[in-house]
């Protein structure tokens, strides 16, 4: 049995995980899985081998409350019951917010975890669960080396002008500035581009990470120069249930006319809006694409329209555009969304190849398209595993 790394990506009601075995200098994914509906009525655990074959499944009781700590206990117990899987020697976590302090992954200790706790108000949908995952592993094995990889870290290279808000100094001193998220996804996808499109891959690239959370990033020579997400992961593109960019005057109106307080506004911005709020049907792009309801159609159109508006902003920050890249669940699988974005962005010199797009090819533009558009599946867990291994080797 080899040694291994566990990667945890804890969301509000789910934990995605992946287990990697170490063979010499290489890391191989041996299993991945999902615990979903944590805190809900029907928690469900499933683990699969790399080829998709089911390795294990549990339907834990929802009572007493099946929380993140219990979910992790079940995951670690399941690993123990499978001695053929690698024996864990480190755990890597996705942590959404690293504030101003962390511009790279970090080997955790209790003082750092306390600091990450303090960042919870900046990412209420993600950070509490990321930190809960770290604490749950400490509770089970206090000596397990743990590494945090931050969504924000990749964007710390942005120039000051891209990070500023035009607000008084005292608030900026508190860390009220633009951060950017989905950093592991951008790091991974950007690292693949030189292999796929040669020298151009080091140029001025816009990556659209379109998942349940969605953002875009402008990358020059492998470094982030701008992002659509800002202080929090609610800015920029509309998402499954998040508004994206919205006139702050709307919030003042909600406070003044509807008497909304902090909790109601947070719910409105993060949970009731986006694709779900606009369509009134679903936050799931698959459901919207298969619906003939006009509300579903205008929602998909709005999503694509906002992507193309932000593409202009990202290209302006870069001073040019060498390639457009789609990734994330929607970016990788929703051909009609990619087609509509490319159609609206045709004037940039993006010429869609409809057959390549439908077939899920890597390059989805024609050979003579001035700017190529690509689809590159992301691998946030793989990046976390690599950083975790590197830092855990220093313990
Ligand atoms: N085949 C598909 N066609 C269209 N949309 C898809 C498809 N598969 C997944 N999606 C969409 O991807 C989104 C989830 O993206 P994902 O990156 O998995 O989310 P998360 O941010 O939770 O990791 C959902 O809106 C889902 O509908
Ligand atoms: C930062 C963010 O939006 O993450 P996710 O896509 O996992 O919701
Ligand atoms: Mg995501």
Provide structural commentary.
- With 395 residues, the chain is α/β, with parallel strands linked by helices.
- The protein has 2 domains: 3-150, Nucleotidyltransferase, domain 5 (2-Layer Sandwich), CATH 3.30.420; 197-380, ATPase, nucleotide binding domain (Nucleotidyltransferase, domain 5, 2-Layer Sandwich).
- Helices cover 38% and strands 21% of the residues.
- The chain contains 15 helices and 13 strands.
- It has helices at residues 68-80, 110-118, 127-140, 160-163, 169-173, 183-197, 248-258, 262-270, 274-279, 285-289, 294-318, 328-333, 335-344, 354-359, 380-392; strands spanning 3-10, 15-23, 26-36, 44-49, 54-58, 87-95, 106-107, 146-150, 204-210, 214-220, 223-227, 323-327, 373-375.
- Strand 10 (214-220) and strand 11 form a beta hairpin.
- The model has no long low-confidence stretch (mean pLDDT 95).
- The record marks 182, 242 as: Transition state stabilizer.
- Its cofactor is Mg(2+); Mn(2+).
- Pathway: Metabolic intermediate biosynthesis; acetyl-CoA biosynthesis; acetyl-CoA from acetate: step 1/2.
């Amino acid at each position: 049995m080899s040694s291994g790394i566990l990667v945890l990506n804890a969301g509000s009601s789910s934990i995605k995980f992946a287990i990697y075995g170490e063979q010499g200098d290489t890391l191989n994914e041996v299993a991945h899985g999902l615990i979903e509906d944590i805190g809900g009525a029907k928690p469900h655990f499933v683990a699969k081998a790399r080829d998709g074959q089911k390795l294990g499944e549990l339907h834990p009781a929802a009572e007493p409350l099946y929380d993140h700590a219990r979910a992790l206990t079940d995951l670690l117990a399941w690993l123990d019951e499978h001695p053929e899987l690698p024996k864990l020697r480190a755990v890597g976590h996705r942590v959404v917010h690293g504030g101003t302090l962390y511009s790279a992954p970090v080997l955790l200790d209790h003082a750092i975890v306390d600091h990450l706790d303090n960042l919870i108000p900046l990412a209420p949908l993600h950070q509490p669960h990321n930190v809960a995952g770290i604490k749950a592993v400490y509770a089970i094995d206090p000596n397990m080396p743990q590494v945090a990889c931050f969504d924000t870290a990749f964007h710390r290279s942005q120039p000051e002008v891209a990070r500023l808000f035009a607000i008084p100094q005292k608030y900026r001193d508190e860390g009220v500035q633009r951060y950017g998220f989905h950093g592991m996804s951008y790091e991974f996808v950007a690292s693949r581009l030189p292999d796929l499109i040669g020298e151009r891959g080091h140029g001025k690239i816009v990556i659209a990470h379109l998942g349940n959370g969605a953002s875009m990033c402008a990358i020059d020579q492998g470094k982030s120069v701008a992002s659509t997400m800002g202080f929090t992961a609610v800015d920029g593109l509309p998402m499954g249930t998040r508004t994206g960019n919205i006139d702050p005057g709307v919030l003042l109106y909600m406070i003044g006319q509807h008497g909304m307080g902090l909790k109601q506004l947070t719910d409105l911005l993060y949970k009731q809006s986006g694709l779900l709020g606009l369509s009134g049907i679903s936050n799931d792009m698959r459901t919207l694409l298969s619906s003939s309801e006009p509300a579903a159609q205008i929602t998909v159109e709005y999503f694509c329209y906002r992507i193309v508006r932000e593409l202009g902003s990202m290209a302006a920050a870069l001073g040019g555009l060498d390639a457009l890249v789609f990734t994330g669940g929607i970016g990788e699988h929703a051909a009609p969304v990619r087609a509509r974005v490319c159609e609206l962005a045709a004037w940039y010199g993006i010429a869609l190849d409809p057959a390549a797009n439908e077939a899920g090819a890597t390059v989805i533009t024609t050979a003579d398209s001035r700017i190529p558009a690509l689809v590159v599946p992301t691998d946030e867990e793989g990046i976390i595993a690599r950083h975790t291994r590197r830092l855990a080797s220093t313990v």
